[in-house]
Amino acid sequence: MAAKKKNKARKPKTAQTPREKLIALLEKPKYDFNGLCNELNVPPKGLNIMLVDLAKINVVVEQDKDGKYFIQVIDLNKPEDLIFDHKLKSGTIHRVGLVSDTHLCSHNQQLTHLRDFYQRCADAGVQRIYHSGDIFAGDGKVYRGQEYEIFIAGFDSALEYGVEHYPAQPGIKTYFITGNHDLAWYQRGGADIGHALAESRRDMIYLGQAGAYVNLTDEVKMYLHHPMGGKSYALSYKLQKFIENLTPEARPKILAAGHLHSMLYIDYLDVKAFMVPCFESQNTFLKRLGLHPVVGGWILELEVAGSFIPTIRMDDITYSEPLEQDWG
């Protein structure tokens, strides 16, 4: 007589937490904001709180061109350059803004002009602005005498100022890397102000230190770069050498480089390279070097077709009259 098979006891399914359910819903760009509220049975305020909680564990919520939400997980502990996927549609027009070296907390910061640039981006239909590093001026020890040219030096106070005063334009998200000024606190005490800023501002997405790739589409990538050192005799030299030193596989279609407080565009080795200006007027350090910064940013309109950018329209927005004590 055949032995009876024992029925294995089924383990009861563990109910998903609200966070787990939200993450599951965001695995693919399927729901808009109202759709997520309906699926989770929460009001808009409750969903906003849940999205903030996700940001605290480095889960970034993005939107595709159709307004559908999805998640992009960023591991800030990776030593290599981070790659951020936008999943934008090929064959369409994309408008983006480029800024760099805003140097918040510097006596020479140009906050009013920065706010005006963000408004111009909004008016142009820009939804994404990329920042090539140095959101903050640093800890007052980046160069000799800097402590006399900033009005906030401490990490916590600078962070609080940045959270409150960096432009928050409805409909626009800022994707940023940190530069040498931002990383002054990190190098001396291990505190990454980029990470802390992104935790407090849902509209600001931290991509990493000094450089990061952004996949605009599956085939078109951009690289945000914050180099070191000063200007060369020929303004384009640093951009050209950087591109030459990249392997063909690593070369982006678009390069946005900050740090040099200058403005330039070159098309070199199939890389559309932008030197992104700043939002800090001439300080004493630059006066000693005889250098005059360009204050402003770029607004780009890109047509993406497969792995190519057939057309690109660029508007260089500059501000020739620096403002004094532009702190509030």
Key terms:
328 residues, alpha/beta, Arc Repressor Mutant, subunit A, Purple Acid Phosphatase, chain A, domain 2, 9 helices
- Beta-strand content estimate: 25-35%
Give the SSE order as H and E letters. Answer: HHHEEEEHEHEHHEEEHEEEHEE
Number of DSSP E strands:
14
The CATH topology name of the largest domain reads: Purple Acid Phosphatase, chain A, domain 2
CATH architecture of the largest domain: 4-Layer Sandwich
Low-pLDDT residue intervals, each spanning 5 or more residues? 73-80
Task: Give the overall shape.
Answer: globular
**Rg from alpha-carbon coordinates:** 22 Å
> Helix segment count?
9
- Proportion of helical residues: 25-40%
How would you classify the helix and strand content by structural class?
Answer: alpha/beta
Q: What is the number of independent domains? A: 2
User: Order of strands across the biggest sheet?
Assistant: 3-8-9-10-12-11
Q: Under the CATH scheme, which class of the largest domain?
A: Alpha Beta
Through-space gap between termini: 88 Å
Largest sheet features: 6 strands, mixed
